[in-house]
């Protein structure tokens, strides 16, 4: 499968927190993944459409989302997935991440069919268009039953060098410690539950960290002392905190990402997520970024949203040929 190489982004002032470019995978045979349904309470089924209609709708949603990001000045490197064995391939942030200084990480995935999402052509693109110094591959930990699903399992504060992580079957503390040692982050772990008392499967559905704001479902954090500590750390970093309810998290309000657009910071999230926020919360976010709501209702059936679809590139561009 041949990637579509987008032009390298032009230099412009931006926060280390907000990448100027992303990788997206456009699915051709999308469907909610039965292998992840057991611990992903955000998944749902569409009984009104057949499989072909669902797949086409997801393909079209990914296309329109990429176009809107590009219109905002964000570089989108698009790849196609025409295979039938990788239903969650549109969520690449779980299997790799990139970091300032030229570092790339590849992660161990919990579900067997998600391990097939890892692609050499994506890593080749990164090496070709950006300055990559090394690639650290943790995927061998799968053989030991140890998993860490990238920036789904971790929400990274690139400014303060903190990795926030909710414990789950997809977030192993041994792997987290190893990542933090290699990439110079401080691990901050906690237990998080939804309104029904189920463990939250990925940290990035309950938390988003921007340059000057943080969205977080504080009520999901079980231990009051830990909840207060995390809220204090975010406040001390100078960020305005937007506290999310359980219902808003269920509508994917936490699954957002700050990007560096042509005219400044952009907050990308789904239309469903944006509509779930109260006016005061929307006003708080609008103080810090231009809001870019993307319509992806079919893709959200798989239990992920906009943040999961965008693998941010925190690497320096190579000079244009």
From TrEMBL:
NCBIfam families recorded: citrull_CtlX
Coiled-coil portions: none
Matches recorded under Gene3D superfamilies: L-arginine/glycine Amidinotransferase, Chain A (3.75.10.10)
Signal peptide: none
Keyword tRNA processing (UniProt): no
Claim: NADP is one of the keywords in the record: no
Superkingdom, natural source: Bacteria
Keyword terms, alphabetized: Plasmid, Transferase
Name of this protein: Amidinotransferase family protein
MF GO annotations: transferase activity
UniProt xrefs under Pfam families: DDAH_eukar (PF19420)
SUPFAM superfamilies to which the protein is assigned, alphabetical: Pentein
